[in-house]
Amino acid sequence: MTKLHSRILIGLALLCLSPLSALAQSVGPFQTEIDCGGVFMGGDAVPYTIRAENQTLQAQPIELSLRLRLPSGGAFPLFTVNFTLGPNQDLVVPRSLGLPASVQAGSYTMLVIGAGVDFTSFDTCSFNVV
Known about the structure:
Shape: elongated
Mean pLDDT: 85
Number of domains: 1
Low-confidence stretches: 2-26
Structural class: alpha+beta
Strand content: over 45%
Number of helices: 1
Radius of gyration: 19 Å
CATH topology: Immunoglobulin-like
Order of helices and strands: HEEEEEEEE
Distance between the termini: 57 Å
Strand order of the largest sheet: 2-8-7-4-5
Helix content: 10-25%
CATH class: Mainly Beta
């Protein structure tokens, strides 16, 4: 392999990995996070907290979606909301998810996705139902 071919392959690898590493490190104009956890039973309320943080000096319009992944592998959308975070503004929203009495036992994952004009940030948390 020539030196030129090596440079092209390295450049392509970096180009392909750049978006993934940016998402993994949440480097961008804003960051979304979710915190939950614990063990629950049918009829319980599962507390969780969503946080959105604008990391710039400009307002950031964000579409925030919350989804619940079921133990069966399916996903259930909980809500989607649009808002604008001002410069260096944080938004912290504590909420709870009411479980039906006949909820399926297993591991559940909550997925929060914040989508902006040219950036997406996401985070997950999990809880168990016995």
